[in-house]
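Anyone able to model this chain together with zinc ion?
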Amino acid sequence: MSEIIRATSYPLDREKIDFFSCVQFFAVHLACLLVLWAGISKAAVMVCLALYVVRMFAITAGFHRLFAHRTYRTGRVFQFLLAFLGTAAYQKGPLWWSAHHRHHHIHVDTVRDVHSPLAHGFWRSHVGWFLYHDSQTTDQALVANLLKYRDLRFLDRYYSLPPAILALSMFLLGLWLERYVPGAGTSGFQMLVWGFFVSTVLLYHGTFTVNSLAHIFGRRRYATKDGSRNNLFVALITLGEGWHNNHHYYPSSERQGFYWWEIDVSHYVLTVLSWFGIVWDLQRPPVRVYLNQMPDYEAD
Ligand SMILES: [Zn+2]
Ligand SMILES: [Zn+2]
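re: yes, here you go
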């Protein structure tokens, strides 16, 4: 614990901040204040939550479990859908995301790991790394197997396009509801603020807890060399990514909750999709993974 307290005292390095990324990131945050003028409605909050869940699924099941780790297979159409919706989360493109994530697994919790809370402190692991100069480029050697997909390269290059399309769609949806479903009590402006800005900010911080909280708080089932933890709260808000100690121990598994009581919504959805042949070859943890847990885990 003392190591963690010491680490969280590291300051963010202002000289390393990338100006353009900062403007984008803080503009989306500031735009949430527009709720003071846009007001609130049931329809707007429901759309906000729905877009959080759909895009979180695209990040966890798409960017993470499919692109970064190849833990299951799917066709080009569903792959594109996941890539588009994940990019609409405004966390840059699938190649950038996967390259940085693979880098995290290779250098986990060392000084070379750009978002390790143990090596660099909490805030840098949560948001600082995302805004740093050094984090803006993509190491293509780390995603060589993904470069053959033209659509992924396109989305990665024009990563602002899907969020812009989503924001415009929200505005038009609100206008449509205002005109044809007056009982919904919403407007184009209100739907833009809740459906895009508020939802995207929640999504940023929900996703980033995997990098920050899931390397600090929670229980360790496996004696990995990193500080990864299993954390129920993170698992709930990220649709299953909180079983992070499981994941670092055996990253090739599609499911990250290794037991039925470890809630992993992305795994449930992927399982249902596999019944319809939309995804297949879901990789499961082998028996040795179940045998290798630390003996004191259950009593912890
Ligand atoms: Zn990690
Ligand atoms: Zn991973």
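The longest strand covers residues 73-74.
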